[in-house]
Amino acid sequence: MDMVNSSVVSEFVLLGLTDNWxxxxxxxxxxxxxxxxxxxxxxxxxxxxxxxxxxxxxxxxFLLGNLSFLDMSISTITTPKxxxxxxxxxxxxxxxxxxxxxxxxxxxxxxxxTLLIVMAVDRYIAICKPLHYTAIMKRxxxxxxxxxxxxxxxxxxxxQMIFTITLPFCGPNIVDxxxxxxxxxxxxxxxxxxxxxxxVIADSGLLSFICFILLLISYxxxxxxxxxxSSDGLSKALSTLSAxxxxxxxFFGPCIFIYxxxxxxxxxxxxxxxxxxxxxxxxxxxxxxxxxxxxxxxxSRLRTQHINTWKKK
Length: 313
Fold this sequence. Notes:
CATH superfamily: Rhodopsin 7-helix transmembrane proteins
Number of strands: 3
Order of helices and strands: HEHHHEHHHEHHHHH
Shape: globular
Low-confidence stretches: 1-5
Strand order of the largest sheet: 2-1-3
CATH topology: Rhopdopsin 7-helix transmembrane proteins
CATH class: Mainly Alpha
Distance between the termini: 63 Å
Radius of gyration: 21 Å
Oligomer: single chain
């Protein structure tokens, strides 16, 4: 179906978080500050991992650097547009801008979902099979895993978007959210979308739920394995895995609630959208840096090197 000929709608109207002017000004500064912190915190992790020789050669931190890059990208797809809309009376987005936003959200979301699974496998090997860790988690394996995560994200988004871009949209064109997302946009199509709705539930909702359960099971297996070895090892494993479990819960929780029942009207959807695109990318750097002594030590080393270099000049 030719989208140009079948679609009358050329843009969508985003209702945003509120229509109260005072609240919009408050949210403007709040999310502008949050986005600045997201970019600064995640960029700091990427730079630290890239330029610190010890962290760069450690699989967990190599994967963490890629996770931070994905968090920055996900937030950039939604937050700047949301912040700019707080200054506008008419919060509109073009048809193809909406399609692009959904494409990249699911590309990056699918990639991050896969990367979190790779990070769980990395922790399992490091804790349960430490003697084989360096032999298994080689640089080639890490690079292949990251490329695989992007490939999975691409297949994930294309499996839904290839059908969505062919849908006719002839009105209404109001999206009751802060950004375009599949469940709400599909409801605006001027044709039957029942099969595509089921595809979204299976592809995004059930997949997120299954991956979340599998990750929790894997972490449980790790903790039980360590517990049988020594109580000291259990304490150390809990300290290491707590950050990973927190990040996994923060990422998959909103995805499950948004997509497992995506075609019902819940007032909590906007909150979950904000949580997914702003809160989670903001909390990840805090979780991984404030609780991680190696990361803080690496940042201190880089700061010292930078100061010494500046003094020599």
